Amino acid sequence: MDRSFYVGVSAALFAAFAFSLNFVVPFIIGDYSTFDFALIRHLVSALVGLFILFSKKHVVRHLTLSNVLKALWLAFVGYVGYFLTVTGAAIFAGPVIAPAFLGLVPIVLMVIGNQRQGSLPWRSLMPPLALVLIGLFLVNGTAFTAEGLNSVGSLWVGVPLALAAVGLWVWFALANQAALATRPEMPSGVWSALILAGGVFMLAFYPVGAAMDLFKLPALGFGWSAAGGLYVWGAFLALLATVGGVWAWNVASRSLPVALAAQLIVSETAFGVIGGLVVHARWPTPIEVAGVAVLIAGVVLSVRIFYDRQFAPGRKLLAQE
Question: Whole-prediction pTM value?
Answer without folding.
Answer: 0.81
